[in-house]
Amino acid sequence: MEQRIKGTTGLLALIGSPVGHSGSPAMYNFSFQYHNLDYAYMAFDIKEDQVPAALDAMRLFKMRGCNVTMPCKNKVAQCVDELSPAAKIIGAVNTIVNEDGKLVGHITDGIGFVRNLKEHGVDVKGKKMVVLGAGGAATALTVQCALDGAASIAIFNPDDPFLDRAKGTAEKLAKEVPDCKVSVYCLDDQDKLREEIANADILANGTLAGMKPHDDITLVDKSMFHKDLVVADCVYNPAETKMVKEAKEAGVKLAVGGKGMLLWQGAASYKLYTGLEMPTDEYQKFQAENEGK
């Protein structure tokens, strides 16, 4: 067996809780080996109140970086030394890069969403968008699309505490990205949803609707789809949600699931750590060959 761990090996990790199910160690370690980089990647179960100690350990062990999952994303944003423009607006971090002791927080979820569309020939620049949801994934993609030049974004969320969060995000974007018009509506207003989708170029679902075991749920009536619409889901399990299936049946321009978003947000983090493009094709091939082993 090839010996990869040496006295010089740099450490990266995933922090959050739970992390035992994560595919990140396999993906990053494959990529480090592919590029012959002297790094190793692990996963550590860290609760929210342990975040400050975990960041101290990052500095002490001179770790190159960490990915961050729930429930630590917001706490990390409060504790790092610097935030990227998107992470600052969102108030959450999923990637920490250790720049010689200075911990810089980034959020790559939105980057993954935009890249997933780009890989399918769709650019968000100048587009009118409808986003369903105002949780973590929805907020990340909303902010990134605004930063990347979307013309307008209409956010629809149920009448719950996240609706106020959406209004807060809209206010921040009005200051930071005034060229992108962001509006917020209650999801109960189905007439408004129909009207906005009719005029939209891109419809994105950033909620858990459609995710197993709720794969029989969709927030959009199939009569709202039109042939010029691009439909994108953040849900990746199942690979095709009910919304994506019905959009395809309705003959939309493009309908994609969230698996690509997951891959490309990881690739964006990899580039922040290494400066290199993650070998995504090679990793997907490796994954397919080893599935079920």
TrEMBL record:
One BP term from GO: amino acid biosynthetic process
Pathway per the UniProt entry: Metabolic intermediate biosynthesis; chorismate biosynthesis; chorismate from D-erythrose 4-phosphate and phosphoenolpyruvate: step 4/7; Aromatic compound metabolism; 3,4-dihydroxybenzoate biosynthesis; 3-dehydroquinate from D-quinate (NAD(+) route)
Residue ranges of domain SDH C-terminal in the record: 260-281
Active-site positions on this chain: 73
Pfam families in the cross-refs: SDH_C (PF18317), Shikimate_dh_N (PF08501)
Record flagged with keyword NADP: yes
HAMAP family xrefs: Shikimate_DH_AroE
Protein family membership: Belongs to the shikimate dehydrogenase family.
Protein name per Swiss-Prot or TrEMBL: Shikimate dehydrogenase (NADP(+))
